[in-house]
């Protein structure tokens, strides 16, 4: 009779590669800039949570905080999952951060605005590794492996 429980050895072995996969994901896109942008959007949204009736009655002043906060979160996700569009996400992130100063509780009491400017600038400035940089990393990794092999240390 088959069991419904997963094999613990298989589960553990599949989880061992997770940190390495996350590291590869993080290094192949503007991760920290996107995190700053997302933090900025969260701060701006957090300071403007109100019941829907209050937001609607307050007009554009109430709605603009939500538009700016959600927009910054969207730009952060674009930077993470579509890194080829990082320039647009970075520029619009900075523009929304600057607009939040006027339209949204002084830009999340200035903290949200500063986080947005930093994050947008980091997203805009990020560039993927060039072939020359990747070749240099591969050569360094191969030298380390050869040195370990020479000294008798086995790979884990």
TrEMBL record:
Q: Which UniProt keywords apply?
A: Membrane, Transmembrane, Transmembrane helix
What segment(s) does the record annotate as region Disordered? 137-156
Q: State one Pfam family annotation.
A: DUF6114
What the entry lists under InterPro entries is as follows:
DUF6114, MFS_trans_sf
Q: Which residues form the signal peptide?
A: none
> Which chain regions cross the lipid bilayer?
30-49, 61-81, 88-103, 109-128
Name it: Uncharacterized protein
